[in-house]
Write a structure and sequence with these properties.
This protein is an alpha/beta fold and 196 residues long. Helix content is 35%, strand content 23%. The protein has one domain: Rossmann fold (3-Layer(aba) Sandwich), CATH 3.40.50.360.
Length: 196
């Protein structure tokens, strides 16, 4: 019997779709079918043995990703689920777990805090706990088997005005492509045992 895995993503400018496709490439095996869909296209989780949900950090994890978790929380609590976040900024805290959820971080993404004992607002906002904590609270029945944090791609011209101002003034991220394909693929390959 063929196994079906869903990779559901949302994106602001298209770059998260490319990450979702890279994850799919690692999860596809002879007896596994992986479907990559925008969150808005997913109506039913029941046909899938496992689900990966991904989205960018834009004023928090993309609101469509959080809405999807809330909407499908009961069904997602019945199958192995993983999340991935794409971001331009992450403060190094050494976190490998949050509330029992294993976390993998692209080693090239985090930056050291200026003063690790007293994080600035921007540094505190851009921590694993600052990003993931509200997501776990939004859908408490869902216990991800893994969460991946990866560099994203930022093009100011593809953001809405409020998003652009937030990224420029609060996050202070520089435009560019920070996606580390080997880290993304390594995380995805590690999901195979959790999804077996």
């Amino acid at each position: 019997m063929q196994t079906r895995i869903l990779i559901a993503y949302t994106t602001s400018s298209g770059s998260t779709r490319e990450v979702a496709e890279a994850v799919a490439g690692e999860l596809t095996k002879d007896d596994t079918t992986v479907e990559v869909c925008r969150l808005e296209e997913v109506e039913d989780i029941s046909p899938y043995k496992a689900v990966v949900v991904g989205g960018p950090m834009i004023l928090g994890w993309h609101r469509r990703a959080v809405k999807f978790l809330k909407q499908h929380q009961q069904a997602l609590s019945q199958v192995p689920v993983a999340y991935f976040f794409t971001a331009m900024s992450l403060t190094r805290t050494g976190d490998t777990h949050l509330n029992g959820v294993p976390i993998q971080i692209d080693p090239s993404l985090p930056k050291d805090a200026k003063n690790p004992t007293r994080l600035s607002f921007r540094e505190r906002y851009a921590t694993v706990e600052g990003y993931l904590g509200p997501v776990l609270q939004s859908a408490p029945l869902v216990k991800p088997v893994s969460v991946g944090f990866f560099g994203g791609k930022l093009d100011y011209s593809r953001l809405k005005l409020l998003q652009m101002l937030f990224v420029m003034l609060i996050v202070q991220a520089q435009p560019g492509d920070r996606r580390n394909w080997s880290a993304i693929r390594a995380w995805a390959a590690g999901l195979q045992s959790s999804f077996a």
